[in-house]
Design goal:
The chain is α/β, with parallel strands linked by helices and about 550 residues long. About 40% of the residues lie in helices and about 15% in strands. The protein has 2 domains: about 220 residues, Alpha-Beta Barrel (TIM Barrel), CATH 3.20.20.70; about 300 residues, UDP-N-acetylmuramoyl-L-alanine:D-glutamate ligase (3-Layer(aba) Sandwich). The longest helix is centred in the last third of the chain and has 23 residues. It binds ligand 3NM and magnesium ion.
């Protein structure tokens, strides 16, 4: 009779690493605190111990964990697992083959397998493992992952997760996962049909901590808050253009929008926010981000003058944690390698709700992870007319270049799918997508291209409307739409923000006292302040393409 497999909670999976313990912290002490903090599964990993020492550690671990009802797996060694009566093993690609391990272990033993490629995952499924460890997600000092292809990123994990769909094989991600990037890992790894990780495995974030209880609590809290969001279904169903006409456009009612924005356009962006009914605060210090994220509204991260990376990392992390929309405006990203690296780091550590950029910026984001973008030759051809070549996109400072892509719909759709967020591509026609729907907006005025910071103001408008929408959603108890981390209908809100600014620009340009860019700017702020939902509704030029 085959024994029932124990039900394993993979959510916060601690892999041990005795060499990483901080001075003065005992192994069992650290482990006990970690379990009390909410660790749900343990793997004893001993890469340097002799057999007798490994066995002793395994036995002590099993004893402690039994009393807390936390299962224990042993890394690599079937004999140690058997001798210590552990619950199973975790095997690497070069360890004993799974069928052989299975034949040696009790029938209800848990067997996990490390996978770096989709091929590994396919084999693990054939071998009927219980779970796979997918990684490395990020670089890590805990294990040598320096060989090419070993670091897979959030999107690499998603690719492997795709293979698991419908198989019942569980999965955790591993490698450099910390509480500060956990939400990005969990949200970013979800497959297009909604298949998600069952947990994350960590070593150093818990083991190297002098307070492993607090570290485990943090991971556990973040995991549970994420798992509580409904997934796999559209919370906001859309069946046609009407839903995007701004009947439900809200005038952002005194909701606060925290800005991390560049020094060039601070005043102007703040004034635009106030004109739309929002309440701006320019707050760049890392230390204030936790407080700010608790106030209703949205977080605009505009890195026009990239100076405060710590502040931007903290801002996105805290906003994610509080389910506040994060609007990322990677101004001039193509202009310098530093900006590209910064954008890559930010996008790997927190989850944006909306990415907004002009063609050069969106192009640079696409190119920045070219290898991760398999359809690049087929679809994403950037026209030479805009001095962008397919291999190398050069940002033209921060000026908008127009739509700049031969197939902008495909570009916004794919980038939205890749980053699991809303993408706004600005230009003479603005394209907005959540990865399936594409909204085309053709409002606007050429004078917008003749003042500085119009793009930044567009980001401000999107952030203001997304912030207000998330406040409304929170009040109504609404969740997040499928594929978006923040609450509320962020696609509609992003579109409404774009409409607000572009329609205001048309109204401003019509005014008799506007003679050029100098008089246009104050008129634009006036027009933003004069906007009503009815004006937006009457003037909006919207087309919707539902895939
Ligand atoms: N396996 P930390 S990465 C044990 O990629 C292990 O298969 C990995 O440690 C893999 O949480 C890794 O400290 C180490 O980064 C993870
Ligand atoms: Mg191994």
């Amino acid at each position: 009779v085959r024994a029932e497999k124990p039900v394993v909670d993979y959510s916060v999976y601690l892999v041990t690493g005795r060499d990483l313990l901080p001075p003065g912290k005992g192994y069992l002490e650290s482990l006990k605190e970690a379990i009390e903090g909410g660790v749900t599964l343990i793997q004893v990993r001993e890469k340097n111990a002799e057999t007798s020492e490994f066995l002793e550690i395994a036995q002590q671990t099993v004893e402690l964990c039994r009393s807390h009802k936390v299962p224990v797996l042993i890394n690599d060694r079937i004999d140690i697992a058997l001798a210590s009566r552990a619950d199973g093993v975790h095997l690497g690609q070069t360890d004993m083959p799974v069928p052989m391990a299975r034949s040696l272990l009790p029938p209800n033993a848990i067997i996990g397998m490390t996978c770096t490629t989709s091929e590994h995952v396919r084999q693990a499924i054939l071998d009927q493992v219980d779970y796979v460890g997918l990684g490395a997600v990020y670089g890590t000092a805990t294990k040598d992952v320096s060989a090419p292809g070993k670091i897979r990123g959030v999107k690499g994990v998603r690719e492997m997760l795709n293979v698991l769909e419908g198989t019942g094989v569980k999965s955790v991600a591993i490698g450099g996962i910390k509480s500060t990037n956990l939400l990005r890992v969990l949200h970013g790894a979800v497959t297009p049909t909604g298949h998600a990780l069952d947990g994350v495995a960590v070593v150093s974030d818990i083991v190297a901590s002098s307070n492993p209880r607090a570290s485990a609590e943090r991971l556990s809290l973040i995991f549970r808050s994420w798992a509580a969001i409904p997934r796999g279904s559209k919370s906001f169903s859309v069946d046609g253009a009407d839903a995007y006409l701004p009947a439900n456009v809200i005038k952002a009612a005194a909701d606060l929008v925290a800005h991390l924005t560049n020094n060039v356009v601070k005043t102007q962006s703040a004034n635009a926010t106030i004109a739309m009914g929002g309440s701006p605060i320019m707050a760049a210090a890392a230390q204030e981000q936790a407080d700010l994220a608790r106030i209703p509204g949205g977080m605009l991260i505009n890195f026009g003058t990239v100076e405060e990376m710590d502040g931007m990392l903290a801002a996105g992390f805290n906003a994610n944690l509080n389910r506040k929309p994060v609007i990322f405006d990677p101004v001039g990203i193509g202009a310098t390698t530093y900006r590209q690296n910064c954008a890559e780091e930010l996008l790997s550590k927190w989850q944006p709700t909306v990415i907004k950029g002009n063609a050069a910026e969106i192009g640079a984001l696409i190119q920045s992870e070219e290898v991760d973008f398999p359809r690049i030759d087929g679809v994403y051809t950037i026209t030479d007319a805009h001095r962008c070549t397919q291999r190398k996109v050069k940002s033209q400072g921060v000026d908008s270049l127009g739509s700049g892509f031969k197939d902008p719909e495909a570009v916004v759709r794919s980038l939205a799918q890749k980053e699991r967020c809303i993408v706004v591509l600005s230009g003479p026609i603005d394209y907005i997508s959540d990865g399936s729907t594409v909204i085309r907006l053709s409002n606007g005025h050429p004078l917008l291209g003749q003042i500085t910071g119009a793009g930044c103001m567009l980001g401000t408008a999107v952030a203001t409307f997304c912030g207000a929408q998330s406040v409304l959603a929170e009040r109504k108890g609404l969740g997040a739409a499928d594929g978006v981390l923040a609450r509320g209908d962020m696609l509609t809100a992003a579109a409404a923000g774009v409409l607000a600014l572009t329609i205001a620009s048309e109204n401003a340009a019509q005014r008799g006292d506007v003679h050029g860019p100098g008089t246009f700017l104050p008129a634009l702020i006036d027009s933003l302040a004069d906007l009503t939902p009815e004006t937006i509704q009457n003037m909006a030029k919207v087309e919707v393409d539902v895939e």
